[in-house]
Amino acid sequence: MSRYLTLALGLCLAYNVALATGTATFETIDIDADGQITMDEAKSDPDLFKAFGGLDVDGDGFLTLVEYSAVEANDES
């Protein structure tokens, strides 16, 4: 149980840091921490929300970390 509490507190801290710096990460957008971003979660980042359909390569309605990494790769170039 304490492992989950530690994880939850860590995610909350990461989310607050990201909000303060204006930087969205996979972890901050994946609010329920299930390892995938839904359309509802993507709404927190307007650019990601607009690009969601093109990034969801397998068309399952979720973005995985691999699919999301395409966004980060484009931001770095």
Your description of this structure?
Helices cover 65% and strands 0% of the residues. The protein contains 5 helices and no strands. It has 77 residues and is mainly α. It has a single domain (2-76), classed as Recoverin, domain 1 (Orthogonal Bundle), CATH 1.10.238. It has helices at 2-21, 26-29, 39-42, 46-55, 65-76. The N and C termini lie far apart (41 Å).
Q: Topology, please?
A:
Layout: H1 2-21, H2 26-29, H3 39-42, H4 46-55, H5 65-76
- What would the principal axes of the Cα set say about the shape? globular
Q: Kindly, what is the distance between the CA atoms of the first and last residues, rounded to a whole number of angstroms?
A: 41 Å
By DSSP (H or I, 4+ residues per run), the number of helices equals 5
Count structural domains.
Answer: 1
**Can you identify the CATH class?**
Mainly Alpha
Rg from alpha-carbon coordinates: 13 Å
- What is the typical, i.e. mean, pLDDT? 78
Percent helix range: 55-70%
Instruction: Determine the structural class based on helices, strands and strand pairing.
Output: mainly alpha
The largest β sheet comes out as: none
- H and E string: HHHHH
Oligomer: single chain
Low-confidence stretches: 11-21
